[in-house]
Every structure is written in C-alpha cells, then in structure tokens.
Amino acid sequence: MERITISIDTALAQEFDQLITARGYKNRSEAVRDLVRSHLQIQRTEHQPTGHCVANLSYVYNHHERDLAERLTALQHHQHDLTVATLHAHLDHDNCLESVILRGATAAVRAFSDALMAQPGVRHGQLNVVAVELDGGHVHAHGQQHAHLHAHSQTHEVGAAAHPHIHLKPKT
After folding, report:
1. Is residue 3 part of a domain?
2. Distances (CA, A) of 148 to 98, 103, 168
C-alpha cells in the first residue's frame, strides 16, 4: 500500500471528521480511499461510455399521473435486456419509489435511465453506475442453489447444474 500526505484547512478537516464519524469509518484513510474510488468510478463511467456496467436507477413518481405506470413498465419491457429487477414501494397515497437494477453497455444504461427519468411525473431520479469488466463464457457449477427470476415475478429454483453465464467484476 502506498502512503500519501495531504493538507486541508481546519474547517474542512473538522467537517470531514464529522462525516467519518457519521458514516462509521474507523479512520481517515478508509474514508479517503472510498472517496477516491467513488470519484474514479464516476470518471470511468462518464468518460468511457463504451464499457459495461451494473447500475441502480431510483426514482419517485406520482402514480396518479396519466398512464405513467404503464409507460414506465413499457420502457422496462422494451429494454428487458438491460433490466434485471425492479423494486416498487408505496410512499403515500400519491407517490411510489422504484429502484431498477440494470446491467449492460454503459451508454445504453444511461440512455434508458435518461428516457425513464424524462417521463412527465417522474421526480427525484438518480442513477448510480458501477463500471464492470466482463468475464464471460464460463460454464461451471457453483455447487449451490440459484434463484432465477423470470418475467412476472415467477421464481424457479435451479440446482447445481453447470450453465453458461457472464461474471461482472467491478473495476477497482
């Protein structure tokens, strides 16, 4: 591990220490490493849109907005190759929170997210992108049960049979 030294003004250091305490870091080094990783991740996904990613798109919407729920579902079905899963929660009488797990080409994930968040009635949208390396074409058994989710929330259990799939390794 490489050691670096930084200098920051006292007020910023105090605010940083409050953040460290609030987030539960054991020391400044752990917090700085996470900040650097986070910034590098943002840089990778913004400046290397040709790569692949996994992402979480979260947004709040008014479910009374005319045909909005149907439009959102249609967008997800139209991009079924990007959409892994959706979590839907009712916040109050008018508002719902959805979180959509996505994977695929970074440019396609960003375009889908932008299109979804641009729908009238969608508010507070945010996309969290993690760049990944594709480790594909492996056929092997994990020796454990896998739950595979299919359309309309049907779950099927698959044993430890060998099956092809791609591993998505987050870039560090």
Report:
1. no
2. 21, 16, 17
User: Environment class of residue 144 by beta-carbon count within 10 Å: exposed (0-12), middle (13-18) or buried (19+)?
Assistant: exposed
Sign of CA dihedral 106, 108, 111, 112: negative
- Rounded CA-CA distance 130/118 in Å is 22
Residue 81 lies in a domain: yes
Q: Does one domain contain both 56 and 127?
A: yes
Are 152 and 125 contained in the same domain?
Answer: no
Question: Bridge partners of 41?
Answer: none
Number of domains in the chain: 3
Asked if the structure places residue 102 within a domain, the reply is yes
Residue 91 in any domain: the answer is yes
- Residues 29 and 97 placed together within one structural domain of the fold: no
Tens digit of pLDDT for each residue in 27-63?
Answer: 888 888 888 887 776 676 566 566 888 999 999 999 8
Torsions phi, psi of 122, nearest 5?
-90, 130
CA dist 89 and 172 (Å) reads 32
Span 120-131, pLDDT tens digits = 999 989 999 888
**How far is it between the farthest Cα atoms of the chain?**
58
